Amino acid sequence: MTTARPLDLPEAGVPVARPNRRTLRPNRATWPLWAITVGMPLAFLFGVHGVVWPIAAVVFSARIFLHRETRFPWSTVPLVLFVLWIPLSFSVVFSLSALPIFAYRFSLFLGCLAAVVWVANISEKQVPTSQIVDWLAALWITTIAFGYLAQVLPHLDMPSPFSMLLGPIGRIDFLARISDWHLADNQDFLQRAFSRPAAPWAAANSWGAAVGILTPFFVRSWLIDVNAKRRKIGLALLAASVIPILTSANRGLWIGLIVGLVYFAARKALRGRFGALAVLFGAVVIVGILLVVTPAGSLVQDRLGGSGNSNEARSELYVDAWRGAVESPLVGNGVPRKTNYYKNSPPVGTHGLLWYLMFIHGFVGLALFLGWLAIETFRSGMVRTPLGWWAHLSIVIAVIEVPYYGMLPHVIVLGLAVGISHREGRQRPSSTA
Question: What pTM value is reported for the model?
Answer without folding.
Answer: 0.89
